[in-house]
Amino acid sequence: MPIRIVHTGDNHIGLPFRPYDEAARTALIEERFTALARLIQTANDRQADFFVVAGDLFDSTRVKAADVERTATILQGFAGTAVLVLPGNHDFFGDADTEVWKRFRKATDATSTIELLSSPAVRRYEVAGQPVDFFPCPCPSKTGQEPTTGWVTTADQDAAALRIGIAHGNVTGLGLDAADRYFTMDAAALEQAGLATWLLGHIHVPFPTTPTGTNSPFFMAGIHTPDSVRCRHGGSAWLIECAGNRVERYEQLTPGTIRFVRLHETLTGTADIDRLEATCAACDTATTVLDLHLTGRLAAADRQTLEATLDRLRPPFLSFTVDLDLHEQIDQARIAATYASGGLAEQLLTALLDDADHPDAVTLAHDLIQEVTRS
Ligand SMILES: [Mn+2]
Fold it and tell me: What's the predicted TM-score (pTM) here?
């Protein structure tokens, strides 16, 4: 029987989602818990032996007690040998007084299977006679120049054990960390440490880049469910199967159910509005946080059609925000309604309207006339 590990990280429980309205904010905060609960369920269904959180389980060191307790209750649902929780850089372990970990310890005190990896020292377990040694590298602060993994190279390693590193930080070549402030690890050094593999967190993008495979010198969990439009994947975690001191097989798990989508569209007429409507209607609305950025030029009547369309599209979405940078397209009806017939403005704008080579000219002239008349 292989030893199975479910590897997650960067769950950011307690992320406040401040820019969203109350309904969306509540749903987004809730999703961080429910996606973690789904992942525990999957780990149990797949008979995982270990559930590893590779840092940033919490969004900060001051997450409120109720949220920490709820997280602890979810983790207590794991049916395997142990849940291992590493402090990352957002939820670093400063000392025994670090608020979030005091709360976490209090909430998990009675659960012998939950281990807070607050110190860099080997944690040994045994699964069906096979020793399994974890080498945790907790973050002591929010930022740091040096990797936290140095102690592993000089630590005693038992050749008979399955040996797994757990760390949190940037990896050269993976993330953008030009200033080396996030405990940057060297990929080659990780590979040369003598361990079967490393379970890492910090970069919210999963690594390896293939959903299944046979081996990898390290794994990056990827955030378990998206937290912003910057997240291009649907939420990720790994199921890793080991035999001896080797990874034999890995498989990507997808516990997330929400998506953040930002759409940039240029509108110049009703055909574009129809196209926008079709694109929005194709979204899985109840689980989509949609952020529309609309630019272009619309005639007054089309602008009304757009407003009505947006009002119709909005309700089923988890969140639906619109950034409008639209100019008014001046047409004959607008000229007739605004300017005296036969007057200079009417004649000028009508002439410009016919200038197919300069479609912006009439709008520009109208804006100028409006500005002059107003001042
Ligand atoms: Mn981090």
Answer: 0.90
